[in-house]
Design brief:
It is found in: Endomembrane system. InterPro entries: Man-6-P_rcpt, Man-6-P_rcpt_cation_dep, Man6P_isomerase_rcpt-bd_dom_sf, MRH_dom. It comes from Takifugu flavidus. GO terms for molecular function: protein domain specific binding. The chain has 274 residues and is an alpha+beta fold. It folds into two domains: 140 residues, Mannose-6-phosphate receptor binding domain (Cation-dependent Mannose-6-phosphate Receptor, Chain A, Distorted Sandwich), CATH 2.70.130.10; 56 residues, no CATH class. The chain has six helices and eight strands. The chain has an eight-stranded mixed beta sheet. A hairpin with a 3-residue loop joins strand 4 and strand 5. It is rod-shaped. It starts with a helix and ends in a 7-residue tail after the last helix.
């Protein structure tokens, strides 16, 4: 009885452990990494989902004068700073702390099938921006030749009326639409037919050789049928395509003036009186 209870407890423990792995950390259950972004409009969630492969990766790039280095992360802590979507690092001041110029708590996403513009907003002043807010816009374009390109700094504008604007560009294949199949319906039918023919020939050959024990040409599946295919096709063509009937039509024969040997009148001549 104790052995049965021990076995039951062990089975329950194994099932509980397997269920925990699936629900908590198993590879079967996929998580949406872009859910960390807080969007201004719920309709932007569909656009943001296109960037799922880029989530929680740091992308960095330098300004044109190389005074600043910018680090961007999609729906994650850029440079390890909580809540920061884009940070600015002063290259001249090595000991200076990174400056937040955009947070993913205020996110806006617009785009189409091959491009997305992501906007992070930060409602505080910081070192290089004298306005009450700053915006970081990341333009992400489709490029099938690269997985993820470096972050390109397009513009640093701190003279706008209401906020500072930082414009970036990133090329990635993640926003590229799926390629449509170039195979036509006829090509697909031919491929399926070729696969079925291959299975028929290989499977039939193995069956004839291993199960039936055939040798030589007899190993070919349905050999007797395929040998007669030519004759059957010829007979069918002759029957369908030719208009001449197979039986000879009796032709007209003229009456001969001389009696033939088998003429019954000659055989009755001996009965006439002399």
């Amino acid at each position: 009885m104790k052995m049965v209870n021990s076995y039951t407890r062990g089975s329950l423990l194994m099932w509980a452990l397997a269920l925990w792995v699936i629900l908590d950390g198993g590879p079967v259950c996929a998580t949406n990494s872009t859910q960390s972004c807080k969007l201004r409009f719920d309709s932007d969630r569909k656009v943001l989902s296109q960037l799922e492969p880029l989530a929680h990766q740091n992308f960095s790039g330098q300004s044109n004068n190389e005074n600043y280095t910018y680090v961007f992360q999609l729906c994650g802590d850029a440079g390890g700073i909580p809540g920061a979507g884009v940070i600015q690092i002063d290259n001249k001041k090595k000991d200076a702390k990174p400056t937040v110029i955009g947070t993913y708590n205020l996110t806006q996403a617009i785009g189409e099938s091959n491009w997305v513009v992501l906007t992070y907003t930060y409602n505080y002043k910081h070192g290089s921006c004298s306005k009450d807010a700053s915006q970081a816009q990341i333009m992400i374009f489709c490029n099938r030749e690269v997985d993820e390109s470096p972050l390109h700094v397009i513009q640093e504008n701190s003279e706008r009326d209401n906020h500072c604007l930082y414009l970036f560009r990133l090329d990635s294949s993640a926003v590229c639409p799926a390629l449509q199949s170039k195979l036509s319906a006829g090509s697909i039918i031919l491929i399926i037919g070729f696969c079925l023919l291959t299975v028929y020939l290989v499977g039939g050959f193995l069956y004839q050789r291993m199960i039936v024990g055939a040798k030589g040409m007899e190993q070919f599946p349905n050999y007797a049928f395929w040998v007669e295919v030519g004759n059957l096709a010829a007979d069918g063509c002759d029957f369908v395509c030719r208009s001449r009937t197979r039986e000879e039509v009796p032709t007209y024969r003229g009456v001969s003036s001389e009696p033939s040997e088998d003429d019954p009148e000659e055989r009755d001549d001996h009965l006439l009186p002399m």
